[in-house]
Amino acid sequence: MAPGGASASLACVTTRLPLAPHAPPSRRRLPLAAEAREVDKSARPVYAVWEITLRCDLACRHCGSRAGRARPDELSTAEALDLVDQMAELGVMEVTLIGGEAYLRDDHAVIAQRIVSRGLTCTMTTGGRALDEARARALRDAGVTHVSVSVDGLESTHDKLRGVAGSHASALRALAALRAAGLPVTANTQISRPSLPELDALFEQLADAGIQQWQVQITTAMGRAGDTPELMLEPYMMIDALDALARLSVRSAERGIRIWPGNNIGYFGPFEELLRGKISSRRCSAGRGTLGIEANGDIKGCPSLPTRDYVGGNIRDARLVDIWERSPEVGFTRERDETELWGGCAGCYYASECLAGCSWTGHVLFGRRGNNPFCHHRALELLGKGLRERIVRVAEAPGEPFDHGIFEVVVEPWPEDELRAAKALEAGATRRVEAVYAARVAAASRVVAPTDAST
After folding, report:
1. Computed over its alpha carbons, how large is the radius of gyration of the chain?
2. Residues 253, 436 contacting (CB under 8 angstroms)
3. 208-231 burial code (b ≥16 CB/10 A, e <16)
4. Where are the alpha helices (DSSP H) in 373-415?
5. N- to C-terminal Cα distance for the chain?
6. Distance between CA atoms of residues 189 and 171, nearest Å
7. Of 121, 351, 404, 420, which cross-links 364 as Cys (Cβ 3.0–4.6 Å)?
8. What pLDDT shows up at residue 16?
């Protein structure tokens, strides 16, 4: 079943580069609860994603933060270092530095060094346009443990999505520079309508570049991506996307590379255990195990959540621990239940385990969480009835970082030829699962035990 509309999507991204907006000032002096509840005190963020600048050297069509210009009130070095200390005190164990483009902030290595000196793991995600060997060595020397480079398709697709000719080549050069510096490298890819047909070839290209892991997620309706809905998958295309990842799991096992599905890939379809290692709760972890930080000190439970709805405070006004424990916006997942669900998620068999999955993916479609049509299980359930879902934009986004428009879901019958192809994919699910496990057993049998140097 070939995903439709790819050529039209690419045509639309060549017309003009997206303008980077001037970000509004930080959300200041937001109210906090008078005291923290026990559920708030028991939750602690293990993982933080920190946008240290919104400045960027790319112009990506799918950028949720509409990065380009620095925020007008980004943290000073002293404020950033103090925030590192507060993260350590709160119990954060790993911090990923992002942008914009993190290395465009002059003190990024100083921030990384402070993170490491406080006993936290420091990683980075980058577009890699200007990440040369000197920058790679500086990251290594600062204590960064690994770097993930964004590669969103083969050369033509990637360059058009990223808005800069040559950005694909520079991303591959960044991977080479990081490896030369002795840093483990991973890649991350947004699965969009243009990139979906290229996943097999892209995996091989990235494997040849020496990656150890490949993180994948779907493009959501946030920011610039929401301005160009043709870039996004339709909900029914989750059947293609998950089948492609299951198929690629055979190659990943053979090449010793872990495919790492992001939080908005899923949920509870036939490949869940195959791709994640086990079937478990797929609930949103924002504000429970995850922390998001914007470059001006605004705090969210997840870095991807819309600013206007989910910023719970600013570190210039309150200590991080107080924002974490006393902000309803940050801690919204801590006592969620099924009463929040609506639409197709409300009556789902997995409702209590999933709670509509990724809050970010659902909220940027509808302006509220609790319903998520980008679900493998849901797409397959509808397929059994000969139905599928599409999304239609009914209101545009205002044009700010981390904003969104409004979409509606249309339920329609499958066209007959596409219905046959989709059912053929579903019918082959068991065969693909068996093939992956066989490949993993074969790969394990090829591992040679290390030689005992004492003999």
Report:
1. 22
2. yes
3. ebebebbbbbbbbbbbbbbbbbbb
4. 376-383
5. 57
6. 12
7. 404
8. 63
Q: For residues 438 and 267, what is the distance between their CA atoms, to the nearest angstrom?
A: 23
Query: What's the rounded Cα separation, in Å, for the pair 199 and 217?
Result: 12
Closest CA to 389 of 182, 169, 239: 239
Encoded tokens for 160: 């058009």
Q: What are the CA-CA distances from residue 180 to residues 99, 133, 210, 229 (Å)?
A: 23, 7, 11, 39
Which residues share a beta bridge with 52?
Answer: none
Residues 6+ apart with CB under 8 A from 381: none
* Residue pLDDT, tens place only, 254-276: 899 999 999 999 888 888 888 88
Predicted confidence (pLDDT) per residue in 102-155, tens digit: 999 999 999 999 999 999 999 999 999 999 999 999 999 999 999 999 999 999
Which run of H or of E encompasses 412? strand 406-413
Distance of CA 230 to CAs 16, 160, 244, 442, Å? 15, 14, 20, 40
Backbone angles phi, psi at 292, to 5 degrees: -120, 140
Is pLDDT above 70 for 10?
no
Give the three-class secondary structure for 345. helix
Alpha helix segments (H runs only) across 256-399: 272-276, 307-310, 320-326, 351-354, 359-366, 376-383
Nearest of 433, 392, 432, 436 to residue 412 by alpha carbon: 392
DSSP string across 65-130: T--BSPPTTPPPHHHHHHHHHHHHHHT--EEEEESS-GGGSTTHHHHHHHHHHTT-EEEEEE--TT
The single-letter code of the amino acid at 126 is T
Predicted pLDDT of residue 431: 82
Predicted pLDDT of residue 178? 98
Residue 445: strand, helix, or coil: helix
**Closest to 296 in 3D by CA, of 114, 125, 65:** 65
CA distance 298 to 344: 33
Residue 85 burial (CB count, 10 A)? 14
Predicted local confidence at residue 179, as pLDDT = 98
